[in-house]
Write a structure and sequence with these properties.
Layout lengths: L2 H5 L5 H10 L5 H7 L9 H13 L3 H14 L4 H15 L3 H12 L8
Helix pairs in contact: 5-6
């Protein structure tokens, strides 16, 4: 069910092979150790909401560009990734939201972005 395509960038090849060949179940701590999960939390909903609020408070163009770059990175070669990163930076730098972020940092306030 797409495990190999999705997991190949998360865990080492030997780990993926062992888990695939044996179908051994594993707990959250082992999932964290192997890179299948980012973190464990006693209140995952609250942790997810805290992260969502932190991301939502960032420059929306920068977040969209970052998402596109990470999507591209799964299959592209280094040269293509570097070109795309350069293009993405050009779409953010010296634009109103980036200028707002710099001003907000200097004024020690929350940035107000336009989407």
């Amino acid at each position: 069910m797409a495990g190999i395509a999705l997991w190949r960038t998360l865990a080492r090849d030997d780990v993926l092979r062992e888990l695939t060949y044996t179908a051994r179940e594993f707990d959250g701590a082992e999932a964290l150790h192997h890179g299948f999960v980012t973190r464990l939390d006693d209140d995952p909903h609250a942790a997810a909401m805290t992260m969502a609020r932190a991301i939502a408070a960032k420059n929306p163009q920068a977040i969209r560009g970052s998402k596109a770059l990470y999507t591209l990175a799964a299959d592209a070669d280094s040269a293509a990734i570097l070109r795309a990163e350069s293009d993405a930076q050009g779409q953010v730098m010296r634009k109103p939201n980036q200028i707002e972020q710099v001003r907000a940092n200097l004024e020690k306030r929350t940035a107000l972005f336009v989407d």
